[in-house]
Amino acid sequence: MIVATDLTKRYGDRVAVDGVSFTVRPGHVTGFLGPNGAGKSTTMRMVIGLDRPTSGTVTVDGARYADSPAPLRAVGALLEARALHPGRTARAHLRWLAASNGIPDSRVEEVLGLVGLGAVAGQRVGRFSLGMGQRLGIAAALLGDPPVVVLDEPVNGLDPEGIRWVRTLARSLAAEGRTVLVSSHLMSEMALTADHLVVIGRGRVLADCPMPQFIAEHAASFVRVRSPRAGQLAELLRRSGADVTRDGDELHVQGVDAATTGELAAGAGLALHELGLVTSSLEEAFMTLTAGSVEYAAARPAAPRTEVTR
Ligand SMILES: Nc1ncnc2c1ncn2[C@@H]1O[C@H](COP(=O)(O)OP(=O)(O)OP(=O)(O)O)[C@@H](O)[C@H]1O
């Protein structure tokens, strides 16, 4: 597992990572989320020894990455902007990495097949598309069959099939008992991939909890109900202590659950055309939590007009 303790990284006056502590456990996909500039890449670089912490520590399976004799066997990492020699073929690139870590060539062919690059393994990587480059980076990460896998924005540049492939791969690596840490800007994708979340903002941990708990604590939910007699229903719900927002024949209800809403309507003989619970997405929960810690925020568009009957 990965254990970060009071991890801090300063660049001059700038604090990129500010006393971050978290544990990434085996058997789960842990999503690493944060707005632009939150410190995700810096943290991941410190995990694999590419950056030195200013203070604090991060260990992988109890040891510092830099102390590992064969690092690719300890942690597999895909980091953004990986330097590739453009004139080298994909196969030659992986063989070179394998040789420097005491990994047999047969494993190169295995990972090429695993990431779907077998047919283009003889092509120069300088000609690779962004998506092919990402697959090659993932192949390199898996080369040493490592117990810990760190993927920074692995779905960047991938098409929908590729995105789904990364999701399945991450989940199967976790199911094999590995420790998997994945960052992504695609919240809908993260919601499908990760079962645990570490959220950072301005270099600090904002949340560290299982995905369902994060949604429950940070996502708003309300009952949506449609009725041709929405005005009467709104009045009834309000008298029962609900907060009600009306937009035409649609009501958004908070403070009273869907079952009670249905019972109240039935008791008063009011027809319903729709009744259900709406829970906001991971993206909305994330936006709510990190609203105060974004570096670059655009002005929000005006909210659509709704009639409030309270
Ligand atoms: N080498 C560096 N020198 C100076 N400042 C840096 C350096 N690397 C990162 N930073 C700063 O540290 C902060 C955290 O950057 P980092 O790249 O870790 O964030 P991130 O969460 O990965 O962001 P993004 O999602 O935009 O990639 C940013 O303010 C960034 O400008």
TrEMBL record:
It comes from the Bacteria. Belongs to the ABC transporter superfamily. Pfam families: ABC_tran. Transmembrane segments: none annotated. Keywords: ATP-binding, Nucleotide-binding, Transport. GO terms for molecular function: ATP binding; ATP hydrolysis activity. Residues 2-227 form the ABC transporter domain. This is ABC-2 type transport system ATP-binding protein.
